[in-house]
Amino acid sequence: MRERGGTPWPMSLVDPPCPPPPASVAAGHAAFTFIGHSTFLIRLDDGTTILTDPIFSERCSPLRWAGPKRARPPAIALEDLPRIDVVLVSHGHYDHLDLPSLRALHARWRPRVVTGLGHAALMARHGIPDAVELDWGGQAELPGGHRVTYLPMRHFSARWIHDRSKALWGGFAVEPASGGRLAFLGDTAAGGHLDVIGRAMGGFGAALIPIGAYEPFWFMQAVHMTPEQALEAQLQLRAKTAVAMHFGTFKLTQEAIDEPGRRLMAARNGQDFRLPDFGGSITLPL
């Protein structure tokens, strides 16, 4: 608060339209469509669809009239999504666990929701029953015979001032039935935990890694990564390809709206770390 809000963001952005998400992908591949912030539509090679940390609301806040507001709309409207089979919710912060979006998804398709310990009761109170809770290292079977593992991250979870770290936070490793592996990190700071995960899991074909909300660094480094740290995270995870997320949607910290992407591109130095278009799809081998 003392350092103020940093670089102002545009009030409203409209991105060029992109082709719709692929209806199918080749064997051993997955398609990743960037909807905004940490929300990706992932289509596996058997047609199973996964939605990560879905937020389609105007604000990520406990208040409808205050708090971080979208700088750009979701690249795909909720009503335009294909059928969703699985929803992965990494932790309880409002920009990742959005109850209105989860209610709408449940009402339409009743997808299997997988999250960390302590979130299922909250979801059930708000009309999203039967969420599967996992401890770090815990696993769950997904529709289609796929498997998901909940991964430890360096972050925290809270919905208000009295519940900090009363529920768990983490990321996910998804292992499709046909083979391969992908990672969705949710939110995390840099640290040796990522190297442990990379070694323990045997690497990843693709990893969704956050690159934004890091300024002022002296304060935010405990919970988020810079673009340069995200590049190091890709190496630690042993991910063949990384895809950036957690940028350009909600102004959570001080950096300019386009700074994370610019810094990532400037620092890549040959690494296969993609900066997705909003609404764009990237198909990758796993």
UniProtKB/TrEMBL annotation:
Segments forming domain Metallo-beta-lactamase: 48-247
InterPro entries per record: Metallo-B-lactamas, NAPE-PLD, RibonucZ/Hydroxyglut_hydro
Superkingdom of the source species: Bacteria
Xref: Pfam families: Lactamase_B_2 (PF12706)
Name of the featured protein: MBL fold metallo-hydrolase
